[in-house]
């Protein structure tokens, strides 16, 4: 169980640093039936099943939040090191998206 929690936290951190919110929503919707099937297969009661569904969601979203914070800190640090203003950075980012 601990390994699963660490794996979910690392997954959330990776999603937060790499992808946007839509990808997180897809993973959250995928994690729901997985948690439900796991808790039913183990024969947990109602309270344990609810906790088995909620706790991985919280861990995933917490990891996602820390990933977003890490990406923001990295972006600000990189901008300061290069010496670009925010508008210049946005112009460069838009040019890379094309």
Structure description:
With 98 residues, this protein is mainly alpha-helical. It has one domain. The chain is built from four helices and no strands. The protein has helices at 2-18, 21-42, 46-82, 86-97. The longest helix has 37 residues, at 46-82. The protein starts with a helix and ends with a helix.
User: Regions with pLDDT < 50 over 5+ consecutive residues?
Assistant: none
Mean pLDDT: 86
Shape: elongated
Distance between the termini: 43 Å
- The count of helical stretches stands at 4
Q: Main beta sheet: strand number and arrangement?
A: none
Tell me roughly what share of residues is in helical segments: over 70%
Rounded to the nearest angstrom, the radius of gyration is: 18 Å
Total tally of structural domains: 1
Beta-strand portion reads: under 5%
Instruction: Determine the structural class based on helices, strands and strand pairing.
Output: mainly alpha
Number of strands: 0
What pattern of helices and strands is seen along the backbone?
HHHH
């Amino acid at each position: 169980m601990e390994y699963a929690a660490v794996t979910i936290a690392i997954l959330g951190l990776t999603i937060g640093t790499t992808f946007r919110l839509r990808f997180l929503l897809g993973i959250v919707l995928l994690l729901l039936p997985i948690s439900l099937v796991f808790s039913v297969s183990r024969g947990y009661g109602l309270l344990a099943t609810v906790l088995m569904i909620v706790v991985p969601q919280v861990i995933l979203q917490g990891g996602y939040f820390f990933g977003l914070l890490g990406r923001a800190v990295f972006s600000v640090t990189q901008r300061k090191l290069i010496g670009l203003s925010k508008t210049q950075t946005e112009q460069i980012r838009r040019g890379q998206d094309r």
